[in-house]
Design a protein that fits this description.
Elements lengths: L7 E10 L2 E6 L5 E4 L21 E9 L4 E4 L5 H25 L3 H11 L2 H8 L4 H7 L1 H13 L5 E10 L5 H10 L4 E6 L2 E8 L2 H22 L2 E4 L1
Helix pairs in contact: 1-5, 4-5, 6-7
């Protein structure tokens, strides 16, 4: 899992040393820290009113350092917190489907899938084309998984891209805002010309197609306005 500035992550409090909180970032082997001023706005009388060891919290990435990640608790909006907790719940649900079929093999296979895909997106796409799933699980188990998936109600599918727009024009910022405002989607500013674009839905094909159309539309608009554009 590659962590970038602006990401919203689920963490587990490891320990508190003085006024610094140390956390484990869920789903990774990486560590994070939160300084007192990033716990909550305003004066904090008792740090443990907000964080205690083993507590699950949702944090925003401020900086990615070599050995640890600098995080903020107070900069996470309630909507963002709700979204990522719901996404985590969805991922666990899909993981449970694999575990029910793959048993002892499940952990290794899930980890391999997650290196290349988001689990829920991958399994939803496998409903219509199971060839990739078969490579991970074998044909017999793949058939069983697909049968369960087709009965499983999909929801809260998210397709995300990080886009970068820059311009040397004196009115470059206005041009970029003009391009993005026309899209009407969930576009969030991250830092230094980087934006997060997210499509929500319950159909992975439709969400993916919509993302493709928006990316193509932004690319066309940036060419007309002479704005540099890239995405990943």
């Amino acid at each position: 899992m590659e962590i970038e500035q602006g990401d919203i992550l689920i963490c587990t409090v490891d320990k508190i040393v003085g006024t610094t909180v140390f956390v484990d970032i869920d789903g990774t082997e990486k560590k994070g820290t939160i300084i007192l001023s990033e716990i909550s706005a305003g004066r904090i009388r008792n740090l443990r009113d907000y964080v205690v060891p083993k507590k699950t919290i949702v944090c925003k990435v401020l900086r990615v350092m070599k050995d640890y990640i600098e995080l903020s608790l107070r900069r996470v909006k309630e909507k963002e917190k709700k979204e990522i907790l719901e996404k985590s719940k969805t991922e666990k649900s899909y993981g449970g489907i694999l575990k029910s079929i793959l048993k002892d093999k499940s952990e290794g296979i899930i980890n391999k899938i997650k290196k290349e895909h988001q689990l829920s997106e991958f399994l939803e796409m496998s409903k219509s084309n199971s060839s990739e799933l078969k490579k991970f699980t074998g044909e017999e188990d793949a058939i069983k998984i697909i049968e369960i998936l087709k009965k499983h109600k999909s929801k809260n599918i998210q397709v995300k891209k990080q886009i970068k727009l820059t311009s040397n024009d004196p009115d470059g910022l206005k041009l970029i805002k003009k391009i993005l405002m026309k899209k009407g989607e969930d576009i969030r500013y991250l830092a230094a010309g980087n934006y997060s674009l997210q499509i929500d839905g319950n159909d992975i094909k439709k969400a993916t197609q919509k993302m493709k159309e928006i990316i193509e539309s932004i690319e066309l608009a940036t060419k007309k306005e002479n704005v540099e554009f890239s995405y990943n």
